[in-house]
Amino acid sequence: MERNITLIALFAALIAALGLVPKFDLASGVPITAQSMGFMLAGAVLGAKRGALAALLFLGLVALGLPLLAGGRGGLGVFAGPTVGFLIGFPVAAYVTGLFAQGWAEKGGFILPALAAIIGGVIVLYVFGIAGFALVTGKGIAASTSIMAVFIPGDLIKAVLAGLITQALRKARPDLAAA
Amino acid sequence: MISLTSDIRTPWHGVAAGPKLLALCLWTLALSYAGTVPAALEACVVVVMLYAVGGWAFMRQGLRLLKPLWFFAAIVGGWHVVTGEITQGLVIILRLGAAIGSANLVTLTTRLDKMLAVIERCLAVLRVPLIARRRLALAVGLVIRFTPVLAQKGTALATAWRARSPRRPGWRLMVPFALTALDDADRVADAIKARGGA
Predict the structure, then answer these.
(1) CA distances (Å), B22 to each of A70, A99, B133, B184, in order?
(2) Residues A161, B174: Cα–Cα separation, whole Å
(3) Which of A170, B38, B51, B121 is 20 to 30 A from A151 (CA-CA)?
(4) Residue A154's pLDDT band (boundaries 50, 70, 90)?
(5) How far is A164 from chain B (nearest CA, A)?
């Protein structure tokens, strides 16, 4: 039980820290923030339940007023904004990513965890994100989708990177899934 | 860890967290009915007046927190200019400003421990077992304690990378960074177990 609590808490702290550390560069030199990748990793590395709980814990602290989102944002205001759908979607995205990643864990490689991150961290997350944007701004689903579409390529890259990182972490800590 | 609570003392700081959160819920619900420009504008004026009670410096602090809204205001505004529905765009932007501004007001004037006390009371009312509430409190404490620690370790990893490479840190740095969190989780779990368990 202790290890479950500390894994959930430390991964929530890792997601928060990813918003605080400097951005990193892709091979093309494009800088990206890693925080949204943290949610994919939470699911892929910790599994569905613990990953979702880590994301929920992180969001709870953001709601309570800690400036943990990338760019030092936080507080209740972010839950009234147009990106609320993404915030609500993060725990679900971590859960779905974890569900698929756990199911495919024995097959190894980076493609399956990357695919799990695409299903959970991109497809499921954008369903929530676009629905939230449409609801808050009063725009239709089609208009909201076309506005949000510009962010999808970046998140697809992050999902592939999440797959590569998950593969490396599983090699480094093979007992992780059994924890 | 730095919280978003304002150091500038306002009368709103003295209001209990529970009633403030309840009022915010009702206010946000009421805002969804502000469907015309005058109604949305009136809602914004009310929020500005609530900030004005705290003085100029407090108002400026509130305005700074609204910074991320400008980006979306530009997107939504631009979209409505293109589609010719300028009035509708204005209502959406004003309503968003009022909703985010009022939510930020509660955050700015309510300390983290008061917010946590409200959560604790809600969980008690929902009959969540005491052990589960204690575990949640422990997890919250661990996140608050370890976020700056991990950020510091991440920065140290990036510095070590820069010392050995002319390029900026790449995504590969994420592997040792995540391993640091996983190993810290193991060590902390052992320490908690040694002190009687969670």
Answers:
(1) 28, 36, 22, 38
(2) 9
(3) A170
(4) confident
(5) 9
